[in-house]
Amino acid sequence: MQIEIAKNCGFCFGVRRAVKIAQKASGASTIGELIHNNLEIKRLQTECNVKTLKSIDELTNEKTAIIRTHGITKNDLGKLSQKDIKIIDATCPFVTKPQKIAADMSAAGYEIVYFGDKEHPEAKSVASYATNRVHIVLSTDELENIKLSNKIALISQTTKKIEKYSALVVYLMKRAKEVRVFNTICNATLENQEAAEELARRADIMIVIGGKNSSNTKQLFLISKSLCKDSYHIENADELQKQWFINKKLCGITAGASTPEWIIENIAKTIKNFS
């Protein structure tokens, strides 16, 4: 059986930057999960003594706090700034951009429509910077019973599919006189999705690697599953099952933006040993 890894997959710029920051800040604590990958977080804990806190309230005697890649809310940043602690901001630049857009557009009188997951830390972070009304939605259906203003600013979570975002643009153009659309979908996300699609069209089986709570990994899995019915979303090699690969000729592998190369290599090696 042949094994092929997608041309673009794994660590994106923002995640790679955040991990480098954490590795240089031994003994620091992150506010929330630094990235959406449990194995990499455990590695940082073991090798670099970087702890993960659920909230600012858990800070005790820490000297350094790291803001996660997805950012934190404006209110939490204010509370953190009042503490006697060194703050290292590892927020991805692709997240700080929509934060600024939300602040600027709402200040200019625009109502914000944010295409993303309500419970995702990135969505909460970006929405917190708006001073006007914010609607966090995943489909046009969620806007049907909402009376929108005539001035709308549309922002997307960085990991969403552009096709679904485009559908939201068309819908809002029919509802409001003025719609400002910002393309805040990360380039790495688009490249990973395109590479996964190309590979899934040819593969007999697709292995999608990444955290179960990773939005961009879920998108890669949905793309793979739509083109290759034998697609599986896993976090580590222990989840692999030998019977998946019986009579398969090409195994495609892709990975979410928070998946380090060492995990991808370990899983590829395990699959190779099956054949």
Question: What is this structure's SSE topology?
Answer:
Blueprint: E1 2-5, H1 13-23, E2 29-31, H2 38-48, E3 51-53, E4 64-67, H3 74-81, E5 86-89, H4 93-107, E6 111-115, H5 121-127, E7 134-137, E8 151-156, H6 162-173, E9 178-181, H7 187-200, E10 205-209, H8 215-227, E11 231-234, E12 250-255, H9 261-274
Parallel strand pairs: 1-12, 2-3, 2-4, 4-5, 6-7, 6-8, 8-9, 10-11, 10-12
Helix pairs in contact: 4-5, 7-8
Explain the overall architecture.
This protein has nine helices and twelve strands. The protein has 275 residues and is α/β, with parallel strands linked by helices. It folds into three domains: 2-8 and 188-273, 4-hydroxy-3-methylbut-2-enyl diphosphate reductase, catalytic domain (Cobalt-precorrin-4 Transmethylase, domain 1), CATH 3.40.1010; 13-91, Rossmann fold; 94-185, 4-hydroxy-3-methylbut-2-enyl diphosphate reductase, catalytic domain (Cobalt-precorrin-4 Transmethylase, domain 1). The protein has a four-stranded parallel sheet with strand order 1-12-10-11, with helices on both faces. The radius of gyration is 20 Å and the shape is flat. The mean pLDDT is 95. InterPro entries: LytB/IspH (IPR003451). Keywords: 4Fe-4S, Iron, Iron-sulfur, Isoprene biosynthesis, Metal-binding, Oxidoreductase. Dimethylallyl diphosphate binds at residues 36, 70, 120, 214-216, 258.
